[in-house]
Design goal:
Layout: H1 3-7, H2 11-34, H3 41-69
Helix pairs in contact: 2-3
């Protein structure tokens, strides 16, 4: 996913997507440990997507707090 596409989504949608990616990441880790994961690049891609989402959520929370503080 691209950050540009993620920024267009709502905060609630990003929260749901984050939860789903965390579940997927756990599943990929378990499959990798048992040798059932064929595409191991999914681990890194999912981690990066999750980090992008968390960054956007943090930015939005900071902007909201900054707007209230001023």
């Amino acid at each position: 996913m691209k950050a540009k596409d993620l920024r267009e989504r709502t905060t609630e949608d990003l929260g749901e997507l984050s939860a789903q990616l965390e579940k997927d990441l756990f599943s990929y880790r378990m499959k990798n440990h048992t040798g059932q994961l064929e595409d191991t690049s999914l681990l890194g891609k999912t981690r990066r997507d999750l980090a992008r989402i968390k960054l956007i959520l943090t930015e939005r929370a900071g902007a909201k707090a900054k707007g209230v503080a001023s």
